[in-house]
Amino acid sequence: MEQRSHLLSFPSSCLLLLLLLLPFVSAGSVAAYKNYTVGDSFGWYDNTEKPNLDYQKWADSKNFSLGDFLIFNTNNNHSVVQTYNFTTYKLCDYDNALDNDTIEWSVSDPSNTATTGVTVAVPLLKEGTTYFFSGDYDGDQCKAGQHFKINVTHGRGLPESLKDPSEQAPAPNSPDVSGEDVTPDTIVPANFDNPKDVSDDNEDSGSITLYLNFLNVKLNVILFLVGFFFIF
């Protein structure tokens, strides 16, 4: 009888330990939104200025998701062009690009002899392949290594601060467009901020409520196991 009690207490103790550790495992499994500094400490320049830079190698080592930001540290002699159009990217030329698939986030001024530092924050608003390059000097900077592509996954989805208001409140009786290969417009909210490395406030409130309910259930299970342990 004493041996049976020992055998039962061992798995019960293990299960109790797992239940106590589960909140910490669950909490760490949800990734926060991130800021990625392009090129790290080297910044955003072409190979004539920084010969050893390989932006594609840098990008391939990262995992990008919706709501993340790319931070470009450069100067006013370099630009930041974001496009979803492979042809635009391949040609290093956005002159004939469409407004709904290409954005120039910073406009350089090659005629300006005074070089000043520039920091450009670009939010990732669409899933799939996204291309970046510098479009200055007729594409020469792009052809000299100042370009890369990334794949953006869904992750946590867009935070509320980056969502297009029209997506949050769709118009009633809107026509259903299907069967057409249409590139969606890229609409950036007027007052977007760099992401905090935490969840949205709304998401936090819901998560906390669910988490407390979950803890309450686990507490009942723990009390039951403790009682079961002492009985046997």
- With strands numbered from the N-terminus, the spatial order across the biggest sheet is 2-8-7-4-5
In CATH, the homologous superfamily of the domain at 35-153 goes by the name: Cupredoxins -  blue copper proteins
By CATH reckoning, the class of the domain at 35-153 would read Mainly Beta
Compute the gyration radius: what is it?
26 Å
Secondary-structure-derived class? alpha/beta
Distance between the termini: 9 Å
Helix content: 25-40%
Total count of helical runs of at least 4 residues: 6
Task: Indicate the proportion of strand residues.
Answer: 15-25%
Classify the fold: give the CATH topology of the domain at 35-153. Answer: Immunoglobulin-like
User: What's the overall average pLDDT, rounded?
Assistant: 74
Which H/E pattern describes the elements?
HEHEEEHEEEHEHH
Strand element count:
8
Give the overall shape, derived from the CA principal axes: globular
CATH architecture of the domain at 35-153: Sandwich
Low-confidence stretches: 1-10, 14-19, 21-29, 174-187, 196-210
Can you give a write-up of this model?
It is built from six helices and eight strands. It is an alpha/beta fold. It has a domain at 35-153: Sandwich (Immunoglobulin-like), CATH 2.60.40.420. The chain has a five-stranded mixed beta sheet with strand order 2-8-7-4-5. A three-stranded mixed beta sheet has the order 1-3-6, with no helix packed on it. Residues 1-10, 14-19, 21-29, 174-187 and 196-210 have low confidence and may be disordered.
